[in-house]
Design a protein that fits this description.
- It holds the Pfam family FtsX.
- One of its GO terms (cellular component) is plasma membrane.
- It is a multi-pass membrane protein.
- Its main location: membrane.
- By secondary structure, the chain is of the alpha+beta class.
- It folds into two domains: about 180 residues, no CATH class; about 220 residues, no CATH class.
- The chain contains 16 helices and 17 strands.
- Strands 1, 3, 4, 7, 8, 9, 10, 11, 12, 16 and 17 form an eleven-stranded mixed sheet that branches. Strands 2-15 form a two-stranded antiparallel sheet.
- β3 and β4 form a beta hairpin.
Length: about 425
């Protein structure tokens, strides 16, 4: 350790309280900057992994973002439905390995109801090609059985054996509820951090059964009882969308073109990855705003350090004069102040990185469970290291201002301070 650096370290130790406050200011600013960056990158990754292993999403003719929003994220409504015959034709296509039908339109206390079949449990993937797992119970088998997402169970206090009433349409009001046809909860999905957690899953046959006696969203007279409906073999007439998995990725664009030019009805087939990229691009303004805010916080922290150094410099003018009297040259004083700023910034960075990993270890599991954002304890990325280097450089540059002021103070000025 050089004499100047040793002197800078002893000077920092001599002003412990002020130094600790400055270090914590830099540390908290860095935690926010790196935290926002880590959440941004992991949220983007989790967002892209909402659905995986699905090659095409097929729905009524629509824009690809709208189709993605209502079929995967349960946001909005379809412009048109798909005829069941069209689903059967494409699900049996020579290049199709599996197809998952999706029927939307009903709700339960603010949560969307999804009609589907056993293919959903077998082939739906999310994240890194992860399967859907049941935390409790089993998949639905009977007509009026349902499997609910983890958020539905947690927020509404449901468990296996609970009964729920489905409402027609998005608004769950008294006149739109299927009161005489309660569903029994037979399974609860394990948390996925995806829209699956906020969805009530029933069979396609159940969707058809509960709408017997309804027309255009209105109940026409008395509807059959559950026992009467269970005697029938219901088959859907239409579905909202379908997820398609192919036997070979090479056939993706050929099938997409065939679906988009299907003569029987207007359909749209989209690639989930491209649609997700476009949707994330639309949200980039919020992403950039977060980075700007965290950047300003770092600037505020560095300005606080500058203010602290300038304030302490006024109190240390006699100290500087004594150093000059002992033979220290102006450049030594200049170097001392810059080194102090660099040491404070460096310690603030070390404390900030330690605090960041501590917070990730503490809140990571909860964020993953409730928001689906993975926050792994991985090494700092090159971009994060570049941000840290920029903070260190800025802290050093900040030290130039008090250093110049100290450099210009004369020996006589320091020895004749008025108290």
């Amino acid at each position: 350790m050089t004499p100047t650096l040793m002197l800078a370290w002893k000077s920092v130790r001599n002003r412990r309280l002020t130094a600790c406050l400055t270090i914590m200011t830099v540390a908290v600013s860095l935690v926010l900057l790196l935290g926002v960056e880590r959440i941004r990158t992991q949220a983007k990754s989790s967002f892209a992994n909402t659905i995986s292993s699905t090659d095409l999403i097929v729905g009524g003719r629509s824009g690809q973002v709208n189709l993605l929003l209502y079929s995967v994220f349960r946001i909005g409504n379809a412009t048109n439905n798909i005829d069941w015959k069209s689903y059967q034709e494409f699900s049996q296509h020579r290049s199709v390995d599996w197809a998952i039908p999706l029927s939307l339109g009903d709700s339960h206390k603010g949560f969307r109801v999804l009609g589907t079949n056993q293919s959903y449990f077998e082939h739906y993937r999310y994240g890194n090609k992860q399967n859907l797992n049941l935390a409790q119970g089993r998949a639905f088998d009977g007509l009026f059985e349902t499997v609910i997402g983890s958020d539905v169970a947690r927020k509404l206090g449901y468990q296996v054996g609970s009964e729920i009433i489905i409402a027609h349409g998005i608004s769950d009001v008294g006149f739109s509820r299927h009161d005489n046809l309660p569903f029994k909860v037979v399974g609860i999905f394990a948390p996925t951090g995806t829209p699956v957690d906020k969805t009530v899953h029933v069979s396609l046959a159940a969707i058809e059964a509960i709408h017997v006696g309804w027309e255009s969203g209105a109940r026409l007279g008395n509807t059959p009882s559950a026992k009467q409906l269970e005697q029938h073999n219901f088959q859907p007439k239409q579905i909202t969308a379908m997820l398609v998995g192919l036997k070979s990725k090479i056939q993706t664009f050929a099938l997409q073109r065939q679906i988009n030019t299907y003569p029987q009805e207007p359909l749209s087939a989209i690639l989930p990855g491209i649609a997700l990229h476009e949707l994330w691009g639309m949200m980039s303004v919020a992403e950039q705003a977060l980075m700007v805010v965290s950047g300003f916080v770092v600037v505020a922290g560095l300005l606080g350090m500058l203010s602290s150094l300038l304030t302490s410099l006024q109190e240390r003018r006699r100290e500087m004069a004594i150093l000059r009297a002992m033979g220290a040259r102006p450049r030594h004083i200049f170097s001392l102040l810059i080194l102090e700023a660099s040491v404070l910034t460096f310690i603030g960075i070390v404390v900030g990185v330690t605090m960041l990993y501590g917070l990730l270890a503490l809140i990571g599991p909860f964020v993953t469970q409730y928001y689906g954002i993975q926050l792994p304890l991985i090494m700092l990325s090159y971009y994060e290291l570049a941000l840290i280097a920029a903070v260190q450089l800025a802290g050093t540059v900040i030290g130039i201002f008090p250093a110049l002021r100290a450099y210009r103070q004369s020996l006589s000025d320091g020895m004749t301070i008025r108290v």
